[in-house]
Design goal:
It is a single chain. It is built from 3 helices and no strands. It is mainly α.
């Protein structure tokens, strides 16, 4: 497997892990405060979690079908999403 594809898969899996943590935090806030904003954030995190999990799965199973030209873009998107989710987690805590 290409190293760039492996980077995309690993960071998509890490994105899923960060989203699980965010989902847990948002759920705790929603239970304590009963704020609709927190429920909206939970819904948003759940949709992003589904996207990240499906992305990691599709990259892992369909790696041979991606051209070499697309690999830097796929890796960059996964890494940038990871950076964004890390910042969101940092300011949420």
């Amino acid at each position: 497997m290409e190293p760039m594809m492996l980077v995309a898969i690993v960071f998509s899996a890490l994105n899923s892990a960060l989203l699980l943590v965010l989902l847990y935090i948002f759920a705790r806030i929603a239970i304590r405060s009963r704020a609709s904003h927190s429920i909206g954030l939970m819904f948003f995190a759940l949709l992003l979690l589904a996207n990240s999990a499906l992305t990691a799965y599709s990259y892992a199973t369909m790696a041979p079908f991606f051209g070499a030209e697309a690999l830097p873009l796929l890796s960059t998107m996964s890494v940038l999403e990871f950076v964004g989710l890390s910042v969101l987690l940092k300011i949420t805590l």
